[in-house]
Amino acid sequence: MKKALSGILLILIMILTVSPVTSAADMQIQIDGVTLVSEVKPEIKNSRMMVPLRVISENLWATVNWSGSDVILKKRDLEVVITLNSNKAAVNGKPVLLDAKPYLKDNRTFVPLRFIAQAFDCNVMYTNAIATIKTKPFYIDGVKITAVHEEFQMTMGSIMAEIKGNAYIEEMYNILKQNKGAEVEAPGNLSPNYRFAEGYDRTIQVYFVSEKGDYVERFSFYSSILSIGESEDKRRILMYADTENKWYTFTSKAYHEILKLNSITSMYGFQTTISNSTP
Predict the structure, then answer these.
(1) What average pLDDT does the chain have?
(2) In angstroms, how far is CA 147 from the centroid of its own chain?
(3) Where do the Copper amine oxidase-like N-terminal domain residues begin and end (predicted)?
(4) DSSP secondary structure code for residue 128 in this structure
(5) Which distant-in-sequence residues (6+ apart) come within 8 Å of 5 by Cβ?
(6) How far is residue 73's CA from residue 51's CA, in Å, rounded to a whole number?
(7) CATH number of 22-134
(8) More exposed terminus of the chain, fewer Cβ within 10 Å: N or C?
(9) CB–CB of 146/210 below 8 Å?
């Protein structure tokens, strides 16, 4: 009788302690607390999570180039090289052995999540069906920045959006700082609320938000009003740096980089609307 009870107890313990198997379709990836939105799901190969290269590279804001079967990822002074169907990789020229080989499926390249994240100095944790990636926080003059707020000026009213994700926050700041042009005089007849200037329309205001919710830095963009028949290349863009109280020229190319960043953050779920005063 005791042997029978012991056997039943052992079976119950085994049933209770066996972890459920999670399918790839159920798995989620979170970056800096934001659940990644993607139509391409991660896969599990040899107990390793494999993710689409484009999804992970764009959300870490790394560029991707191909050289034969090699994939080259770059972000500032960091270069990661991986090879399709090979466990050999390199980080800044230093050889690394992978425990899961990158592969091509349905014209999409899948790479091991943990290796790519750690190569870009991110922490990775797994909890049940969630893979959590934490990137390096971004600071402005020693103040930790947790979000970017963008106010889009419409014909009537405005829309305020919030962008999360340290890589996106840092890239937004870099675009603004690195593409700041020559200092110029302020446009004439600027209204007190900075909404419109003579010959210019305000388009976007960008705020860098601290952990406490304070605006650490603010930038406003003004686009020149084109006459009927004027081509788009005649448009002039000015940037007002609020903390400096100075006006600068800003290139159209850099302005479109901001719009591209907005598009990507919206696509992957890193951008949310926090207010909308349009009719």
Answers:
(1) 86
(2) 11
(3) 30-133
(4) T
(5) none
(6) 15
(7) 3.30.457.10
(8) N
(9) yes
